[in-house]
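Thread: Newbie trying to understand structure tokens

Hi all, I'm a second-year student working on a class project, and my supervisor (Dr. K.) asked me to get a predicted structure for one chain before our next meeting. I've only ever worked with sequences, so writing a 3D structure as a token string is new to me. If someone could post the tokens and maybe explain what I'm looking at, I'd be very grateful. Here's the chain:
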Amino acid sequence: MALSPSLPPVDDRAPTLFLICGLPGAGKTTLARRLEAEHRALRLTPDEWMARIVGDGWDQARRAQVEAVMIEVAERVLGLGLSVVLDFGFWTRAERDSLRARARAVGAAVETHYLDPPLSELQRRLAARNGALPPDTFAVTPEQVAEMDPTSSAGRRMRPMTEAAPSVLDLKFASGLDRARSEIQIQEAHWKTLTC
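---
Reply by user tm_fold:
Sure, no problem. This is what the structure looks like when written as tokens:
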């Protein structure tokens, strides 16, 4: 039995993989939901799967397994001609580069959205979210954000920048060079789009 041919894209454009980057509380899932609706895309948010399947959002071994399955699903959906939004965080260039290559291998375009609100805004949002925790999310403390934030002393100690080529985060926090890159457009306050 022959496989049916790939379906045409929903909006007559090549399917797009949207990579959503940023710290907890940056607005990743809000943006991911907007892109999902605007592009009739499949949105994959690990926290939702972790809450429903694992019950513990901080189990890194299981999160890695969940994200690996999501990436396989995303690759298949892109190959079928539909767009996908990955709401993962994508803190390392290696992760982003790997997914860009996989998406392009199946004929998809890639957009990277980097959300960068000030730390005070992140803390305000997380305090509000933690106070009335929405379904399929997990509480995030200010200490946990500091461990993840490459601008904090804790973040720099825990995650030294060791990539051969600087990542978007390296550029942002090391020298602000990302503002000079022509492919960056400010979409909304603290939302940047890199079309890769």
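A couple of things are worth pointing out once you decode it. The chain is about 45% helix and 15% strand. The chain has a mean pLDDT of 75. Feel free to ask follow-ups in this thread.
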